[in-house]
Amino acid sequence: QVQFVESGGGLVQPGGTLRLSCAASGFDFSDAVMNWYRQDPGKERDFVASVSRTGGGTSYDNSVKGRFTIFRDNAKNMVYLQMSRLEPEDTAMYYCNVPGNPFNSWGQGTQVTVSS
């Protein structure tokens, strides 16, 4: 059974930092590209960042480029999102998944709220 368990969200002031974690299980993690997404209520789930199978390649949405860093630990089946210089516009529920959601499975997400 494929599972994604996101954690690390919370309430943070503008300009602050957070690190999100995602524990993945039930598939060959080291053979999968991993993405982070975010979603506001009533809106589409948007791509945030991607990391290659080995971790050597990353890509980001323009809105977070230079502020967020995605990385992974294949020994622990974990993917992370280090977020800095957070802005109110970053407020959303954050999810991790394999691109295209091939297993038809989403985790519960972790809520990030950026507010003073």
Question: Topology of this structure?
Answer:
Elements: E1 3-7, E2 10-12, E3 18-25, E4 34-39, E5 45-51, E6 58-60, E7 68-73, E8 78-83, E9 92-97, E10 110-114
DSSP helix count? 0
Low-confidence stretches: none
As a percent range, the share of helical residues equals: under 10%
Shape: globular
Mean model confidence by pLDDT: 97
Strand order of the largest sheet: 2-10-9-4-5-6
Class derived from helix and strand content: mainly beta
Number of strands: 10
The sequence of SSEs as H and E is EEEEEEEEEE
What is the beta-strand fraction? over 45%
Roughly how many Å is the radius of gyration? Answer: 13 Å
Describe the structure.
There is one protein chain. The chain is built from no helices and 10 strands. The chain has 116 residues and is an all-beta fold. The strands form 2 sheets. A 6-stranded mixed beta sheet has the order 2-10-9-4-5-6, with no helix packed on it. A 4-stranded antiparallel beta sheet has the order 1-3-8-7, with no helix packed on it. A hairpin with a 4-residue loop joins strand 7 and strand 8 (78-83).
